[in-house]
């Protein structure tokens, strides 16, 4: 299995993502610079990692969405059905590029949030959640200023009807409360996929829930599920 990790000026989680995959199964990992016009070889999985690509100028992910390599990312998604995962800033980039619906706005308290949070796994019918139980609560850290997921009512209804919501912010026992929804995301949404199920985005950082010095090991199953898929 070949994994490609896209790197922009300001990306800062690309090596974390690489180490997470190496911890579970994968050794063939390519870093792809944003100015590259094509992949070295056709990847089985593309990761758009976290960070602050282009310093979040204009809007988080707005400049990166128009980079050369994103044309190839779109092509891989639509022509080959390649699995694509956007984490934090990567989620923002995928939304700005039109590969995922909705937008990520400023957190409701207008402050940068950096702490472990609890997430409810809505279902395990996605490569991103395949190794979890339906309704399982996991713990991943967040580190974002623009993680407030927004979409219009029609889009939200479609996401619900098509089981495109993968993760929601919750309490330790899985309750979807306003207090647990730190950034103010609509319907406590923390992660979604496209209708085809091959493009996925999430704000929390599973790559920072792997080792003993992380807040949990819950990210291991996420990366193992991607490898298995």
Secondary structure: elements and pairs:
Blueprint: E1 3-7, H1 14-24, E2 29-33, E3 45-48, H2 68-80, E4 83-87, H3 89-96, E5 103-105, E6 113-121, E7 137-144, E8 148-150, H4 153-161, E9 165-170, E10 189-193, E11 199-202, H5 219-228
Parallel strand pairs: 1-2, 1-3, 3-4, 4-11
Antiparallel strand pairs: 5-8, 6-7, 6-9, 9-10, 10-11
Helix pairs in contact: 1-5
Q: Percent of residues in helical segments?
A: 10-25%
Radius of gyration (Å)? 16 Å
SS elements, strand count: 11
Oligomer: single chain
Question: Uncertain regions: pLDDT < 50 for 5+ in a row?
Answer: none
Order of helices and strands: EHEEHEHEEEEHEEEH
Largest beta-sheet details:
9 strands, mixed
Shape: globular
Structural features, described:
22% of the residues lie in helices and 25% in strands. The protein is an alpha/beta fold and 229 residues long. Helix 2 (68-80) links the parallel strand 3 and strand 4. Helix 1 (14-24) packs across helix 5 (219-228). The longest helix is centred in the N-terminal third of the chain and has 13 residues, at 68-80. The mean pLDDT is 95.
């Amino acid at each position: 299995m070949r994994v490609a990790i896209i790197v922009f000026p300001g990306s800062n989680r690309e090596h974390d993502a690489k180490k997470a995959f190496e911890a579970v199964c994968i050794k063939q990992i390519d870093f792809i610079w944003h100015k590259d016009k094509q992949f070295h070889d056709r990847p089985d999985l593309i990761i758009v990692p976290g960070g602050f690509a282009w310093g979040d100028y204009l809007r988080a992910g707005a400049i990166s969405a128009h980079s050369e390599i994103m044309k190839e990312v779109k092509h891989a998604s639509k022509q080959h059905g390649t699995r694509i995962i956007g984490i934090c800033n990567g989620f923002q980039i995928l939304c700005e590029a039109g590969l995922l619906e909705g937008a990520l706005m400023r957190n409701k308290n207008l402050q940068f949030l950096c702490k472990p949070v609890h997430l409810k796994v809505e279902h395990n019918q996605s490569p991103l959640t395949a190794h979890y139980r339906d309704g399982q609560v996991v713990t991943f850290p967040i580190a974002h200023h623009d993680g407030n997921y927004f979409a219009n009512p029609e889009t939200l209804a479609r996401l619900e009807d098509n089981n495109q919501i993968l993760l929601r912010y919750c309490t330790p026992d899985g309750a979807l409360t306003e207090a647990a929804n730190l950034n103010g995301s609509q319907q406590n949404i923390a992660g979604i996929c496209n209708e085809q199920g091959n493009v996925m985005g999430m704000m929390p950082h599973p790559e920072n829930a792997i080792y003993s010095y992380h807040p949990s090991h819950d990210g291991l199953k996420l990366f193992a599920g991607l490898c298995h898929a």
